[in-house]
Amino acid sequence: MSGGCEGCRSGEALDFDFSMAFQPIFDVRESRVWGYEALIRGLAGEGAYSILSQVNDTQKYRFDQLCRTKAIELAARLFPQGENLRLSINFLPNAVYEPAACLRATLLAARRHAFPLNALMFEFTESEEIVDTGHLQRILAEYRRQGFVTALDDFGAGYAGLGLLVDFQPDLIKLDMKLLRGIDTSYPRQVIVATIAAAARALNIEVLAEGVETEAEFTILQTAGIHLFQGYYFARPAFEALPQLNLRSAHDMAAQLGVQVC
């Protein structure tokens, strides 16, 4: 691939640095960690807002590129070999200037660190308004051509909701934690989540519940047929490290499914 992203070439350089924390995604069907999401942090572990608030419009292209390369570099160093783990990276569709050109740095980083392309999952968020649906279609088509997993983050909390699934069918959707909070005591939430999960299955889309904090929330979500989970119930993010899984939670969940935790 020749050339590079025009947005990166013409944009401002960053006048700050940042790093990443990692939070596990747990698969109850296989009773194992499915992958890790890379989360932006300051160099001393400060929260994502301390970094995102410094990014201006002329820096967003370069920032998006650096997020990808930093996540891949850290994951290549931290991920145990042979465990088939996925790395989930967030991106803003409006920060992708041209899909193929903007992947140049990503592909180079993966090649440099021997990180398999099919282990990369890219999440685009529903909380960012999609101003050009054709542009997003081109991004997803190019990412699938490269072998990446595609995911829609914050589902149920943003601009378009179910309407996005009419135009775009990613490999996975992540249910927003605000939709899930208190689901064990809210019948309307239970009905809505079960309906979304059923629609996703019909479209051959995997569902991940994020922000799960309690056993009661997990129990209701599991009965809706959801198998991938992320949240404090399993582990908090660890700065530049892979956190220890809450094995008690993992064992409790596995016992409900009749499987064993290694």
Write a structural description.
Helix content is about 40%, strand content about 20%. The protein is an alpha/beta fold and about 260 residues long. Helix 3 runs parallel beside helix 5. The radius of gyration is 18 Å and the shape is globular. The longest helix has 19 residues. The protein is built from eleven helices and nine strands. The protein has an eight-stranded mixed barrel.
Please tag this protein with its features.
eight-stranded mixed barrel, alpha/beta, disordered C terminus, 262 residues, single chain
**Could you tell me the strand content as a percent range?**
15-25%
What is the terminal-to-terminal distance? 42 Å
Number of strands: 9
The helix tally amounts to 11
Which strands sit side by side, in order, in the main sheet? 1-2-3-4-5-6-7-8
Uncertain runs are 257-262
Average pLDDT taken over every residue: 86
Largest sheet: 8 strands, mixed, barrel
CA-based shape: globular
DSSP helix fraction: 25-40%
Query: What integer value in Å does the Rg equal?
Result: 18 Å
